[in-house]
Design brief:
With about 350 residues, the protein is of the alpha/beta class. The protein has two domains: about 1-150 and about 290-340, Quinone Oxidoreductase, Chain A, domain 1 (Alpha-Beta Complex), CATH 3.90.180; about 165-290, NAD(P)-binding Rossmann-like Domain (Rossmann fold, 3-Layer(aba) Sandwich). The chain contains eleven helices and 18 strands. Strands 3, 4, 5, 9, 10, 17 and 18 form a seven-stranded mixed beta sheet that branches. A six-stranded parallel beta sheet has the order 13-12-11-14-15-16, with helices on both faces. A three-stranded mixed beta sheet has the order 6-7-8, with no helix packed on it. Helix 4 packs across helix 5 (about 175-190) and helix 4 packs across helix 10. The longest helix has 14 residues, at about 150-160. The radius of gyration is 20 Å and the shape is globular. The N and C termini lie close together (about 10 Å).
């Protein structure tokens, strides 16, 4: 099969590699679409180091089951599917507690979050355990369906961890793909005021399409002053989805007493100054969220199936697999949101 193999930092090579064979309980999925996540791009640039090259990355996958191994019961050849990249054992205490993304025996298909990183979706075929497959709704395109995993992560952080309630006021810092999915989730969940902060007007226009009631370009105006002009009492929930330390600092700066913060986007090392005493007397509640669970994947599929979230709204570019180098170059452009590879 043809695959884009990451050989070294900024060295990705298209080559013919052996097509995988399914073991017991596994399937082979013919990849129809695979989104480029920022963590995939960080693997390419060398910022992410939790794997040993050569490797095939890419973990936002949809496709068609092309082969099933022994023991597979619920899927058959020809099924249109969505892949969850987080592989879990189902036997450890974390799995039994519903925290499968903490699994002590866990692995990940082409992504981040576990030390065991398996080959991913920037290829014509990928091997996937049956437990990691979900039926794709017929009305959802393969490109849109490939974004079920980041949507599940957004749902998990916004609803399950930060416990967004109907009528609350939300600020999201960062209008990239995750920020825009969080925006759609918050809008569907009934956020009253929904403010998006970014440094690019291009992305803020997409934020309006995804349900933002207000947008702020923090290069052009003070985000704190503008937020408190809109919300004199301050926001209930603040999501850091920009992935940079300045955004994490801004999240604390935007808090009022009782605000809830979710550190969602920063995945690279670094620190910011925080006052424990200030947190104590303002009762700021801080949370974070990474990866997905089977429960949140099911919620994500339902959100797409019922039209509550339209992931296709954030897709700005699609490339065939043989143009993956061009796709990775496009990741550096300010005028792009989500890029999808279509083998």
């Amino acid at each position: 099969m043809l695959a884009a193999v990451l050989e070294d930092i900024k060295h990705i090579e298209l080559k013919e590699v052996p097509k995988p064979e399914p073991r017991y309980g596994e399937t082979i999925v013919k990849v129809k679409a695979c989104g480029i996540c920022q963590t995939d791009f960080k693997a390419y640039t060398g910022e992410r180091k939790n794997f040993t090259p050569p490797i095939i990355v890419g973990h936002e996958i949809s496709g068609i089951v092309s082969e099933v191994g022994k023991g597979v019961k619920n899927f058959r050849e020809g099924d249109e599917v969505i892949v969850s990249p987080a592989i879990y054992c189902g036997k450890c205490d974390y799995c039994k507690s519903g925290l499968e993304h903490y699994c002590v025996n866990g692995a990940v298909i082409g992504g981040d979050g576990f030390d065991d990183v398996r080959d991913g979706g920037f290829a014509e075929y990928v091997v996937v355990p049956e437990t990691n497959l979900y039926k794709k709704p017929k009305q959802v395109s393969f490109s849109a369906a490939a974004l079920a995993e980041p949507l599940a992560g957004s749902y998990k952080g916004m609803i399950e961890y930060s416990n967004l309630r109907l009528g609350e006021d939300v600020v999201i810092i960062g209008a990239g793909s995750m920020g825009l999915l969080l925006t759609q989730v918050a809008s569907a969940a009934g956020a009253a005021t929904l403010i998006l902060i970014d440094i690019e007007d291009y992305k803020l226009e997409y934020a309006k399409k995804c349900g933002a009631t207000h947008v702020i370009n923090s290069k052009k105006e003070s985000p704190r002053e503008k937020v408190y002009d809109i919300l004199p009492k301050g926001p209930d929930v603040i999501f850091e989805a920009a992935g940079v330390l300045d955004a994490a600092s801004l999240a604390f700066d935007l808090c009022r007493r009782g605000s809830r913060i979710n550190m969602f986007g920063v995945t690279t090392p670094g620190t910011i100054p925080v006052s424990p005493g200030h947190i104590h007397f303002t009762e700021i509640a801080m949370d974070a969220s990474f990866s997905v669970t089977p429960r949140t994947m099911l919620k994500s599929v339902k959100l797409m199936e019922k039209g509550l979230v339209d992931t296709s709204k954030i897709i700005t570019h699609e490339f065939p697999l043989h143009e993956i180098s061009k796709a990775l170059e496009t990741m550096n452009l300010p005028e792009r949101i989500k890029i999808v590879i279509k083998p």
